[in-house]
Design a protein that fits this description.
- The complex is a heterodimer of chains A (about 240) and B (about 130).
- With about 240 residues, chain A is α+β, with helices and mostly antiparallel strands.
- Chain A contains three helices and 13 strands.
- Chain A folds into two domains: about 1-40; about 65-235, no CATH class.
- A four-stranded antiparallel sheet of chain A has the order 4-1-7-8, covered by helices on one side.
- The longest helix of chain A has about 35 residues, at about 1-35.
- Chain A is elongated.
- By secondary structure, chain B is an alpha+beta fold.
- Chain B has two domains: about 1-75, no CATH class; about 75-115.
- Chain B contains four helices and six strands; from the N terminus they run βαββββαβαα.
- Chain B has a two-stranded antiparallel ribbon with strand order 1-6.
- Chain B is elongated, with a radius of gyration of 29 Å.
- Chain B starts with a strand and ends with a helix.
- The chains are: A alpha+beta (about 240), B alpha+beta (about 130).
- At the A-B interface, strand 2, strand 3 and helix 3 of A face strand 2 of B.
């Protein structure tokens, strides 16, 4: 009799735990359906700050166009030793392993030089397409030689100073979900230079044109409160 | 807790950053004088590349956000760990030396003793 009671209790508890498991499973699947994968995690917010265009600070520097830029070969950049601010998405400092890995370019000042970071959304994937252009009028041996060097490079970091003195860094990504505090990495698709030499037809200027293309995941500005364009030039020995 | 350059980065000879206008080499080469070649815009000159000070490391850690360049470490705990590793290395070296010495003795005995032990046949055949 005693054994029978024990057996009944055991069977009953087995059934109970089975149904409890089923209930839990149902609860989890319904929760996932309703609330997505955030179940079990704290709610994540990007901490939007807002932009107020009536504030004079927001419209004091709008001069577009690239004034000058530095091209750095990716291999010469030490990503580990470089730093960034995960909150602002700004690069706070770049570290380089050598000199002779970079050069500065000052393109024609005729409103043709640009470096745009164009967003492209496919579903939940937001890419940033880098689209740059620089023109150097009047062909000479030096420009042809530089064009030949540029076309050989396979991965570039471009540090561009705009006419409004903002500085953007192309070719780098701050990837937030790769480690605890995020990581500075080379961009998704490296920036490459496509060089064209135009001899012209007599009615236009002979010129070298360089187009920059690449794709990254985020917008990466240089935090000029802590690192300036001049600092980077000094570090690079240019 | 003390600050130091991440050993992985410090192992590279030159890792240069400019902090507050000061050129600093965080690599193993330490401070050095960098020669700048003459250009169209400037004459050749030399510039000092500094080794990082405690203050520089502190500045990077506290002001420049996320970076693997500088890391905190516990000097006492690290010293104890290093001592333990050194002791372990010594023990391994000793054991290895003993093992090699034994091997040598055995090999010597084998080459010297084989013909005698075999008696006559093999030694004569090998000739």
């Amino acid at each position: 009799m005693k054994n029978r009671i024990i057996a009944i209790v055991m069977v009953a508890s087995l059934f109970a735990s089975y149904f409890q498991g089923m209930f839990l499973e149902m609860y989890i699947s319904i929760s996932l359906f309703l609330f997505g994968s955030s179940v079990g995690h704290s709610m994540g917010f990007v901490n939007l700050g807002g932009v107020d265009q009536t504030d004079s600070e927001n419209c004091e520097t709008c001069d577009s166009g690239v004034a000058r830029f530095i091209l750095v070969e990716c291999a010469g950049l030490d990503l580990d030793a470089s730093s960034f601010d995960p909150l602002t998405g700004c690069i706070t400092g770049l570290a380089f392993t050598d000199v002779g890995i970079a050069a500065e370019y000052v393109p024609d000042k005729d409103n043709t030089a640009k470096l745009d970071f164009i967003g492209e959304r496919t579903g939940s994937v937001h890419n940033v397409n880098v689209d740059g252009f620089a023109k150097f009028k009047c062909l000479n041996k030096l420009k042809i030689s530089e064009g030949n060097k540029l076309k050989k490079t396979c991965c570039l970091i471009i540090i561009a100073e705009y006419n409004d003195c903002n500085i953007m860094v192309g070719g780098l990504d701050i990837v937030s979900n790769c480690s605890v505090s995020g990581e500075l990495r080379l961009s998704k698709q490296e920036i490459q230079a496509t060089v064209s030499i135009y001899g012209g037809d007599g009615s236009d200027e002979s010129r070298m044109e360089v187009a920059f293309t690449g794709q990254q995941r985020c917008f990466t500005a240089l935090d000029q409160d802590v690192t300036t364009y001049a600092d980077l030039k000094t570090a690079l020995g240019i | 807790m003390k600050l130091r350059v991440n050993p992985r980065i410090a192992a590279k000879p030159t890792v240069i950053r400019v902090i507050n206008g000061k050129i600093i080499n965080f690599g193993s080469r330490g401070a050095f004088i960098r020669e700048r070649a003459e250009t169209k815009k400037s004459a050749a000159y030399e510039e000092l590349v500094h080794a990082p000070t405690e203050e520089d490391l502190k500045y990077i850690k506290e002001k420049l956000g996320s970076s693997n360049l500088v890391q905190e470490y516990d000097e006492v705990a690290e010293e104890a760990t290093m001592k333990a590793i050194e002791a372990q290395k010594e023990a391994i070296k000793k054991a290895q030396a003993e093992y090699e010495a034994n091997n040598k003795v055995e090999a010597k005995a084998a080459t010297a003793g084989t013909p005698k032990a075999n008696g006559s046949g093999n030694a004569a055949q090998s000739k």
